[in-house]
Predict the 3D structure of the following.
Amino acid sequence: MSEVAAHPPHRRVTSFVHQRNRLTEGQAHAWARLWPVYGADVADVLSGALPYDPPAWFGRIAPLVLEIGSGTGESTAAQAAAAPEVDHLAVEVFEPGLAQLLMRVEEAGLTNLRLLRGDAVDLLRERVPSASLAAIRIFFPDPWPKRRHHKRRLVQPEFAALAASRLAPDGTLHLATDWADYAAQMHEVCTAEPLLENVTTDPDGWTPRPPWRPITKFERRARAEGREVRDLLFRRVAKVPTPPD
Ligand SMILES: C[S@@+](CC[C@H](N)C(=O)[O-])C[C@H]1O[C@@H](n2cnc3c(N)ncnc32)[C@H](O)[C@@H]1O
């Protein structure tokens, strides 16, 4: 085999940077015990080693919510506890966060939450069927505040089109951020996506925080620093409206 591949695989800009984060001793113990039960790797789903099969993973057929970037899982666990009739798939690249979420799953006895480690965009694009999700939730995505890093922001036109295509009719895309310019970008991008319509009746376009989305450390810090938190809720329309003749 030659040392340099003739055509190295194209790697798109990701919304995260790879870091090797060590697990604490407690997290490592939880991981060894609980990951085989509740977790799986996006890479295995992409390679086909593990079929993308939520009914098999949850042992039932139920509406499915996909959360991108569950972080330490404080909000994720609360969402799953608040809606036992709905299945929740948390996708995250940050291992210590996934380990903390595993501990929350065990502590709360949650049966409707599974964890996937890896890039949610790859999963959405390659494996999640069209029109299959009840909701996609992205709470406090990395803001990438420097202009030269804006290309790393998750919510861009291409992503909005991908996310909308994976939502079932009436399925929702729910976003929250404490960065004013990112909130404006999200609003603009989702409004421009023909498969999405804003659910809110608020003339400003924002939606109130639902009671099941707890105030996490991101929101507490934002409030302490005087930043406003914005929720955005868009719904997948059945089909793209055709303009009148
Ligand atoms: C700022 S944190 C917010 C965590 C959590 N949603 C909360 O509100 O506490 C954003 C998280 O998104 C994750 N992330 C970013 N891009 C991702 C992607 N494409 N797939 C999966 N996780 C991603 C990061 O690793 C990070 O943990």
Summary: The longest helix spans residues 25-38. Residues 1-8 have pLDDT under 50 and may be disordered. The pocket of S-adenosylmethionine is lined by residues 15-16, 68-71, 75, 91-94, 97, 119-121, 139-142, 154, 216, 218 (CB under 6 Å). The chain is about 35% helix and 20% strand.
